[in-house]
């Protein structure tokens, strides 16, 4: 089985490109994520406070280590305008070993 270094992918939606860019830049600058992709054009439909809501959002895909998750989450919460932002993480079970090693090395100073 390939080495994963406990790499996780953190998903977060934001209401605007400006918010997405601010969060992405901050996470990478603080070495809490090695890379954050910003995906535009996400249409979200969700239940909130008894209503069905629908809006355009930007999706962040942050690659980091499990050890960095708590600090990454706290940083997102400090910058995010939503009361309850979507912040979820999934383990990376397989991937290019060189890429996973790079993610771990790039974010490893926070452990």
From TrEMBL:
SUPFAM superfamilies: GlnB-like
A molecular function GO annotation: copper ion binding
Gene Ontology biological-process entries: response to metal ion
Pfam families in alphabetical order: CutA1 (PF03091)
PANTHER family documented for this protein: DIVALENT CATION TOLERANCE CUTA-RELATED, FI09726P
Recorded family membership: Belongs to the CutA family.
Protein name: Divalent cation tolerance protein
